[in-house]
Amino acid sequence: MYNILVVATASMIALAIKGRMEIKREMNLKSPFVIEDTPYQEKINGIGLNVNLPPMVRNVTSKIERSFSKDKLNTFYHNVHTLRVTDDVKKLSVAERRKGIRLMGVYLPMENAISIDETCVNEKIVAHELLHMSSCKRRRNKYFQGFCQGNKNNNVGDGLNEGYTEVLTRRYFDNGNFSKGAYTTEQFFALCVEKLVGRDKMEKYYFDADLKGLMRELQNYYSDREIESFIVGLDNIFNYKSTRNKELRVEEIVRNSYVEVASFAHKALLINSLNNRDNKAVRDYQNGTRLIAKIGDNILSEASFQSAANELNKRFTDEANEILRSKVYRR
Ligand SMILES: [Zn+2]
């Protein structure tokens, strides 16, 4: 399988540089990035939580500890006792507010620190950032965080990772309310992947920071090209949504990314309904296809959506026919 991906860097990674925060917001296209196997991590048992944490952070860490089975908590235990909490993000949000951006929380993977603006933070934001902590490993200058891998210049899998982090936040800290709020588009596409892989395995890959393992699992259903186009495409959409870069070249990339991502998700929902053949799976498929179209409308409202829609319709029909002919759904 190809290891080199062409990827747009994350637009909203806050980097702490010598005590000063900086947001990367430009879309740096076409930097190659190698996806690696997740670093080995020694097994450790629960070693107690960091008692110096602020009360809300400590509450959320103990809720994470109660919510997941031990085999998913190894990375959590590796990080939680050295976690630092700062309020640097507050300084940042003051400067950024004029531009209409307010960052309420951020996790810094290389420093194992969360930074929260305690004037507006709530349990869900803390949970989201602590889930990043619970799924973050490091090797040399590189971090492996959930379904994302990166360094200070570049990363891959950010869109899928933010989506799934928010799925877990909603599932365990908001009674499974997926419908509104942050990263709804990314959440939807991450849930499509989870339907194929299964919840337990998907959570395990996430907490192991094992993007490569997830990609191998998806090879049961997809070609390498489809898997890579999905991951990179979701990164592009994620970046585009936060930057709203209307440059023609970028819109073209986003339009193509949408076609790839939507096509991948459509196939996931179709295989899921064929695998299960129950009412819920069929409903998921029907609602899912409607949602895919709606997401397209939102993302590409100012781009040439009609041609993307035509292209998609053709691909959906071709793919549905191919799946129905093949035996792939019997896996
Ligand atoms: Zn996040």
In short:
With about 325 residues, this protein is α+β, with helices and mostly antiparallel strands.
Please write out the topology:
Layout: E1 4-7, E2 14-17, E3 20-23, E4 31-34, H1 55-67, H2 74-80, E5 84-86, H3 88-97, E6 105-108, E7 113-116, H4 123-133, E8 136-139, E9 142-145, E10 148-150, E11 155-156, H5 158-173, H6 184-197, H7 199-207, H8 211-218, H9 224-243, H10 248-276, H11 279-299, H12 305-325
Parallel strand pairs: 5-7
Antiparallel strand pairs: 1-4, 2-3, 6-7, 8-9, 9-10, 10-11
Helix pairs in contact: 1-4, 4-5, 5-6, 6-7, 6-10, 9-10, 10-11, 10-12
The chain binds zinc ion.
Zinc ion (ZN) is lined by residues 128, 132, 162, 165.
Notes on the protein architecture:
By secondary structure, the protein is α+β, with helices and mostly antiparallel strands. It has one domain. Helices cover 54% and strands 12% of the residues. The chain contains twelve helices and eleven strands. The strands form four sheets. The protein has a four-stranded antiparallel sheet. The radius of gyration is 20 Å and the shape is globular. The structure holds zinc ion.
